[in-house]
Amino acid sequence: MPAFGILGAQWGDEGKGKIVDFLAEQATMVVRFSGGNNAGHTVINNKGEFKLHLVPSGVFWQHVTPVIAAGVVVDLAQLIEEIDALEERGVDTQRLVLSDHAHVVMPYHVQLDHLEEQARGNNAIGTTGRGIGPAYVDKAARVGIRTGDLLDEAYFAQRLEPVVAQKNALLTKVYGAEPIDEAAIYKQALEYGARLRRYVGSAEQVVGQALRHGERVVLEGAQGAMLDLDHGTYPYVTSSSPMIGGALTGAGVGPHQIAGAVGVFKAYSTRVGGGPMVTELDDEVGNEIRERAWEYGTTTGRPRRVGWFDGVAARYSAQVNGFTSCVLTRLDVLDGISPVRLCVAYELDGKRLEDFPSVLSVLERCEPVWEDLPGWTNPTAGATRFAQLPEEAKGFILRLQQVIGTPIDMISTGPKREETIVVRQIVS
């Protein structure tokens, strides 16, 4: 019963969309298990370039069933827009399954997201403003609305009424904002529900049946492990679990059904929003990497913070996820840059730290311990075999593998499917 988790191993934006799309050729199902439309995946194939926010990256393969599982929070308007855009470009979305357990991002979630972020002032987390955090708050508080609720008008009305009363009290008395119109929200949500009804079903049963039949299932993560609610750089984290544990609960599969946990690392580091980033570059090298790789958010367009590869964070990510394999992306971005720096430890008050600090105030005071590796002048872009890489690039990859403590079995050398080096088969 082989399921493979494809997980962001840093702070998100590692290029998981391309990797999932590539591996989906060998699978029959791709399951998005967490997050919402605050995350974006870019896929480039023979139909062009696509920016996905909710629809799983496996949608481009005719033999793959794309599933949005219970762990995802769904902005219905965004999902409908995404489906329509895919259909207009000749991508068949009829196989899509949307879990009836998935929670809905309601308009008041988006409004509260903006108001709460503004109220934080200088302590703002740097959310995308898409309402994801407030939707997960309501989920945990047991006042959330699920997609299945929208298919029963009377039950939905019963669920919505006390929630709107609560949100209006919060909006008007705490934030001094205008109250929301319950009737308008009810009507709009029912319309969205009717539009998506054909896709809504028991995703858990669909996934479980595929696994019982021995089919290969790819579990697609959003964001990265360092943004995990429990194990990330709290409070500068997301509101769900993008790690392997989140894959189990979000997709509704058991631990014995997971054949592998694959961590996707970028050859350098990026981060969006606030929070400590020990290897951050505030210089021309950082700007060059950002512009070369066009490190701007798929969802927000915000410039990403850029830094060298953080080996301490990488080891921690590998530990808490139990990675069985790693993928390295964006290697080609470092072509022509020398030296290439790698953070192998932290220094705090003159002491060397090998392990990632769990206390934010400690992490904020850490300085990187660098290891400089020679760069390469011959390009890696477009390489499809490890032997084609310059010796310096090979050395960099092998050193990263040692630092992470997990084999790097795949290397992305460009955005297209074919621009990939497979060292060892990951999905088998």
Distance between the termini: 11 Å
Strand order of the largest sheet: 9-7-5-2-10-1-11-15-19-20
Mean pLDDT: 94
CATH level 1 class label of the largest domain: Alpha Beta
The CATH topology annotation of the largest domain reads as Adenylosuccinate Synthetase, Chain A, domain 3
The fraction of residues assigned to DSSP E strands is 15-25%
Structural class by secondary-structure content:
alpha/beta
Number of domains: 2
CATH superfamily membership of the largest domain: Adenylosuccinate Synthetase, subunit A, domain 3
In words, what does this structure look like?
By secondary structure, the chain is α/β, with parallel strands linked by helices. The protein has two domains: 3-91 and 202-422, Alpha-Beta Complex (Adenylosuccinate Synthetase, Chain A, domain 3); 103-198, Adenylosuccinate Synthetase, subunit A, domain 2, CATH 1.10.300. It contains twelve helices and 20 strands. The protein has helices spanning 16-23, 76-88, 107-120, 132-140, 153-174, 182-196, 203-212, 244-251, 284-293, 311-321, 360-363, 391-404; strands spanning 3-8, 29-32, 41-45, 48-52, 65-68, 73-74, 97-99, 103-104, 200-201, 217-220, 258-266, 269-271, 305-307, 309-310, 325-329, 340-348, 351-353, 367-373, 408-412, 420-422. Strand 19 and strand 20 (420-422) form a beta hairpin. Helix 3 packs across helix 4 (132-140). The longest helix is centred in the middle third of the chain and has 22 residues, at 153-174. The model has no long low-confidence stretch (mean pLDDT 94).
